[in-house]
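Submission sheet (multi-component)
Chains listed below:
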Amino acid sequence: MKAFKLENEPKIKSGFNTPENYFDDFSEKVLQQLHQKEVKVIPFYKRKKTLSLAAAAVIGFALMIPIVNNYKATSNDLDEATLETYLSYQSNISQYDLIQKLDDSDIEKLNNNITLEDETLEDILSTSPNIEHLIAEQN
Amino acid sequence: MIDEKEFIKQLLNPQTQNTAFQKLLSDYQRPLYSHIRNIVLNHDDADDVLQNTFIKVFQYLKNFKGESKLFSWMYRIATNEALTFLSQKAKLSGISSEDLQNKTIDNLKADLYFDGDEIQIKFQKAIVTLPEKQQLVFKMKYFEELKYEEIAEILGTSVGALKASYHHAVKKIELYVTSN
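Outcome: structure written.
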């Protein structure tokens, strides 16, 4: 076999080629990759998530405003029952002191409360042992 | 042709960077592609390595001291990337780098982006039998037609050593082709 001599042969090409338009698209591809590496892009959906979380927090706080207000109001206004219990069991105020504090309108209210039905009155009178006494005195 | 120092300044300035890098890409993508393709042989691999090369060029540009030419610096990065890629691929496949190259050459017949014939395949097989450095020198001189001075700057060796290396490579290839 004849010895192969590179310099006597026509130039042998590598035979490598590329897809069509490969180099046209290549620059774009690399620049895009570089841009991605340089700027840490926060995807839109993530931004949206933060935004909606912030909105939810604001709404949450807004909803809490009336609750907080109510809580304050009720804690400042003692209801009547608590007040009565306090006065009768915890304080040194005697019944006499209380009567002293009553004004005319209070007494009128008390009068109103005492208006009793006739039947009830009769019941009381008939069951009360001192009633005869009273009748005798009246007469 | 603008001064290389000026061009590097443009590449580092955020305002001119994009245009300058586009110019760098259009000037160098074809020669660097051939250089990488000659080493890794397959188009898809060459595409990956070429992308990584440009990304590294861009990343390390601010460290580029201008001691060598931009051209040889970029070729050096491309060579390193391609060789690292090959050795990693061989490691992953659990075979030697030479076996991997032989396998790739066998697959070239089915490669869409290779239009060589039997002689070209035999020629590639002959090149694979060479030591790594000789392969590089031969490919850069024979296929890429770079000057000895340019190859010397890229590979960091003397022109004399390169000439000797190329001469050895040619002899071995001729011997392989004659006897196979």
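Remark: Residues 16 and 29 of chain B are 20 Å apart (CA to CA).
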